[in-house]
Amino acid sequence: MEISNKIPMNRDELGSFIALRRQDLGLRQEDVAEMAGLTAKTLYTIERGKGNPSLHSLEKLLDVLGLSINLTIKMTGNERAGLQ
């Protein structure tokens, strides 16, 4: 599943998005957490926008839900000047 969203998501939005996707697939938190190698408590906190998962954990979780991460990393002009 690919969703094009150029607007950055904050933790609350990401958590809600993950919860909705899980529910749309008819999966329980416990089952998704186990498949992603997370605890149910960790998934619960992520879905509530309170968790701060590592990139690796987030990738595993999204993979279980049929999603993937597409990151764009940009430097501002000030940061570029410091690298020269």
Characterization of the model:
The chain has five helices and no strands. By secondary structure, it is mainly alpha-helical. The protein has one domain (11-82): 434 Repressor (Amino-terminal Domain) (Orthogonal Bundle). The longest helix is centred in the N-terminal third of the chain and has 14 residues, at 11-24. The chain is elongated, with a radius of gyration of 15 Å. The N and C termini lie far apart (39 Å).
In total, the number of domains comes to 1
Distance from first to last alpha carbon: 39 Å
Residues in β-strands, percent: under 5%
Which sheet architecture does the biggest sheet show? none
CATH class: Mainly Alpha
Find the structural class using helix and strand composition.
mainly alpha
Overall pLDDT confidence? 87
CATH evolutionary superfamily: lambda repressor-like DNA-binding domains
Instruction: Work out the helicity level.
Output: 40-55%
CATH fold group = 434 Repressor (Amino-terminal Domain)
Backbone CA Rg: 15 Å
- What is the name of the CATH architecture? Orthogonal Bundle
Number-wise, the strands total 0
- Which term fits the overall shape? elongated
Q: Low-confidence parts lasting 5 or more residues at pLDDT below 50?
A: none
N-to-C SSE string, H for helix and E for strand: HHHHH
Q: Total helix count? A: 5
Protein name: DNA-binding transcriptional regulator, XRE-family HTH domain
Pfam families: HTH_3
Keywords: DNA-binding
Organism: Dyadobacter soli
